[in-house]
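Much of the work behind modern protein science is quiet bookkeeping, done one molecule at a time. The fold becomes a row of whole numbers, each drawn from a learned catalogue of backbone shapes. The protein below has been through that process, and both of its lines are reproduced in full.
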Amino acid sequence: MNKLQNALRINALFSSTSGIILIILNQQIAKLFGTSNNTVFWIMGIVLIYFALTIWLEIKKQRKSAIIWIIIQDYIWVLASILLVTFNPFLITETGNLIISIIALIVLYMGVNQMIKLDSINK
């Protein structure tokens, strides 16, 4: 397994684990975020599992355009997280904002790491 595949595998594992946690613990997570609406958390969980499945596919295929799309989605996640924490349109608790911020940093790391590994393979 090359370094790019390893970077993608880390993202796939993190995304699928996060998705499963969001689905299983959606009510508890909703409370941490200060809301009784848990629907968004299990929907995000399903989307993250789907995202992870697309990453697993690219670990094998390694199509440059698909990997770039994965990296772009990671950066979109980070940007959306920054906007969510900055403007707090849903009145998320401090704990919720802290969780969003920590996850955004992890996702940013994964996006940058994947970009570096993709660039090193193309040289």
Q: What stands out?
A: The chain has a mean pLDDT of 96. The longest helix spans residues 94-121.
